[in-house]
Amino acid sequence: MQEISFTPGELNDGFVVAINIEAKEDQGEAVAAILESLVEPTMAEPGVKLFLPYRSPTNPLQFFLFELYRDEKAWAEHQATKHFKEAIEELLPRSAKRERMPYVPYTSP
Predict the structure, then answer these.
(1) Could you tell me if residue 82 is inside a domain?
(2) What does the pLDDT look like over 25-78, one tens digit per residue?
(3) Number of domains comprising the chain
(4) Is 54 part of any domain?
(5) What's the chain's Rg over C-alpha atoms?
(6) How far, in Å, CA of 7 to CA of 49, rounded?
C-alpha cells in the first residue's frame, strides 16, 4: 500500500461516510476479519482518501468505519467494486445492525 499524506484542508474537502455496525452474537471476529480485508483494496481506489475501521474496546460486537472519498461519485464507485460487493455479501448476514450516514464539509454562511 502506498504512503499517502493529506493536509487538514484536504481532509476536510470530500465526502464522508460514517458507518456503525453491530455484529450478531458470536460474529464479532468474522466481522472484524471482513472489515480488515477491505482496507488495502479500498485504499487503492483512486477516489478514496481514507478508509478506517474501528472496534469498540468495551463492546467487541460494535464497529465504526470512517470513510473519506474525493466526492459522492467516488463513494458510488467504491460500492460497485468487486471487493465491496463480496464483503457486503459476507457482512450483512453477520450484522445485527448497519447504519450509514453521509456527510459533507460544514461551511458557515
Answers:
(1) yes
(2) 999 999 999 999 999 999 999 999 999 999 999 999 999 999 999 999 999 999
(3) 1
(4) yes
(5) 14
(6) 11
